[in-house]
């Protein structure tokens, strides 16, 4: 897939005695949606601001296609900050057109882009309104339009889903996936881990200014093995304890949760369950990204 690659390489940042970033690094590939998660103060926003040149790093750098992100490269990036970054008294359409022209679009191309993105994001009826007259959700949509209006090669979005209703969340999710399918690397931070799990190809978990885990979502979720849920109403406690690679996590009202090691044989487990009587449920599950996050940051 053709597209740009965003590299975050060994970023370090201190504020006096406080270490904000300690060697943060990861790569977002063309066409990839990368979720960047961590608690407040973990270093997410600092990383993004350094990536966009808003802050300077003490060490390390951000690159797009191997080039440090100078002003010229910066114009190819669509950035959505967590805090409102728009002129509150300026009309939506004029503001988006102005921002598109700042990124190098002609007046006619900028006008067409404003129309396209305001329609796509459901705010075409608000183009003559000032930003401060909009609801928080519509302000968020305008922020996204501002990040997209110049057709960026890379998207960097800080908490883009904050304050959105479910319909707006679906619209924004669809837009991010569309851009990724077009080869754009998409980096976004969010506290909504269910969305990160659903949308992202890979995820990076940051804590205390350090990367705690980076990898494909399902790979990280399955790194400690899967859990097998078995509903066998007649099965006694400990019915699976003799099986290789199987550890009983819980057993209540005929429902057993089993942790599976590498040498566990699900067919042997099923046979053992059937030997106790009927089996109503037999399903593998992975821990959620929320469960993984709790484990990693703890």
Automatic annotation (TrEMBL):
<comment type="similarity">
    <text>Belongs to the ABC transporter superfamily.</text>
</comment>
<protein>
    <submittedName>
        <fullName>ABC transporter ATP-binding protein</fullName>
    </submittedName>
</protein>
<dbReference type="Pfam" id="PF13732">
    <property type="entry name" value="DrrA1-3_C"/>
</dbReference>
<dbReference type="GO" id="GO:0005524">
    <property type="term" value="F:ATP binding"/>
</dbReference>
<keyword id="KW-0813">Transport</keyword>
<dbReference type="InterPro" id="IPR003593">
    <property type="entry name" value="AAA+_ATPase"/>
</dbReference>
<dbReference type="InterPro" id="IPR025302">
    <property type="entry name" value="DrrA1/2-like_C"/>
</dbReference>
<feature type="domain" description="ABC transporter">
    <location>
        <begin position="6"/>
        <end position="233"/>
    </location>
</feature>
<dbReference type="InterPro" id="IPR003439">
    <property type="entry name" value="ABC_transporter-like_ATP-bd"/>
</dbReference>
<keyword id="KW-0067">ATP-binding</keyword>
<dbReference type="InterPro" id="IPR027417">
    <property type="entry name" value="P-loop_NTPase"/>
</dbReference>
<dbReference type="Pfam" id="PF00005">
    <property type="entry name" value="ABC_tran"/>
</dbReference>
<dbReference type="InterPro" id="IPR017871">
    <property type="entry name" value="ABC_transporter-like_CS"/>
</dbReference>
<keyword id="KW-0547">Nucleotide-binding</keyword>
């Amino acid at each position: 897939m053709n597209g740009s690659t965003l590299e975050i390489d060994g970023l370090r940042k201190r504020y006096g005695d406080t270490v904000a970033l300690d060697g943060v690094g990861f790569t977002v590939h063309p066409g990839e949606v990368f979720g960047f998660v961590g608690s407040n103060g973990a270093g997410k926003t600092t990383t993004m601001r350094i990536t966009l040149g808003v802050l300077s790093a003490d060490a390390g750098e951000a690159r797009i296609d191997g080039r440090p992100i100078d002003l010229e490269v910066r114009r190819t990036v669509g950035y959505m900050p967590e805090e409102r970054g728009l002129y509150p008294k300026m009309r939506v359409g004029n503001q988006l057109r102005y921002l598109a022209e700042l990124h190098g679009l002609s007046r006619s191309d900028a006008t067409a882009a404003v129309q396209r993105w305001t329609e796509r994001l459901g705010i075409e009826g608000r183009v003559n309104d000032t930003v401060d007259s909009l609801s928080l959700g519509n302000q968020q949509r305008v922020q996204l339009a501002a990040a997209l209006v110049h057709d960026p090669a890379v998207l960097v979005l800080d908490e883009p889903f904050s304050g959105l209703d479910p319909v707006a969340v679906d619209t924004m999710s669809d837009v991010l996936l569309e851009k990724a399918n077009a080869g754009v690397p998409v980096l976004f931070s969010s506290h909504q881990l269910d969305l990160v799990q659903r949308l992202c190809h890979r995820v990076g978990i940051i804590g205390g200014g350090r990367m705690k885990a980076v990898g494909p979502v399902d790979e990280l979720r399955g790194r400690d093995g899967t859990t097998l849920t078995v509903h066998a109403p007649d099965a006694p406690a400990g019915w699976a304890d003799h099986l290789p690679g199987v550890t009983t996590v819980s057993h209540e009202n005929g429902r057993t949760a089993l942790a599976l090691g590498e040498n566990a044989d699900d067919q042997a487990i099923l046979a053992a369950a059937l030997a106790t009587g009927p089996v109503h449920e037999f399903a593998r599950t992975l821990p959620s990204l929320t469960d993984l996050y709790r484990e990693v940051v703890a």
